[in-house]
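Before the break, one more example. Copy the sequence into your notebook; we will annotate it together after we see the structure.
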Amino acid sequence: MTAIALYAPENQDVVEPGRCAVPWGVCPDHGGTLRSNVDRGSWCTDPVCFNAWPYDRLGALCPEPATHTVRADDGSTVYGVCDGHAITARAQIVAGRVLPGAPAAG
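Here is what the structure looks like once it is written out:
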């Protein structure tokens, strides 16, 4: 599986328009830095961040608005991601790009 496929939404038809399409949560400020457990909920592990949530954000659909577009270089995949997923995707995706701005509706 390619890195770009990891970011593809599992169920395109359940993603609300304008929302991040990735089926797991991240810290909206630092990307893939979350940890989670039953007793504490979820928290960002970036040393300067104090973001925390009282639920398993890592295991839930991302609730953030789409602010960037992930596009495969061959055009086969296009979807919207939030700021946090864009941070992480830039470091992980090959054969694709993360572009500013949500994808055009339609």
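The chain has a mean pLDDT of 87. The beta strands are 34-37, 41-44, 52-53, 68-72, 78-81, 96-100. Try to locate both features in your own notes.
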